[in-house]
Amino acid sequence: MKTAQNSLPKWILVVSGVIALLELGVSLSLCFSPESVLESVDLEAKGVDYLIYMWAARQFALGFIFGFATIKKSIPMLTLAYIFFLVMMVGDLFIGISQKENPLIIGALVMLIISSAMIFIINKRHHI
Fold this sequence. Notes:
The chain is mainly α. The protein has six helices and no strands.
């Protein structure tokens, strides 16, 4: 199993590391500068801060998971991280469609393609 884990190409680790950093960055942005991420949301409304911190926690958890799986070079962990990411992006796609928010739709579609491709590539390499 150790040789399978060492067979991950560097570019897969780089992509996974970048996703980890992006997720951690979004989490920090939500905590410290939510207006930069949520332009159309009334940040003074009751309960909005709670939802922002919940979203930030979700992003932080995903970033941590991707980072840990990348550092460990673990095919099973990266596969699970990308599956979770894929499910999350499906949800974001539906939210974007329901809110008629084109940037969210486009971003979710791009990340759906990337996560699907990464799941396929990681597991194709694992079964060789």
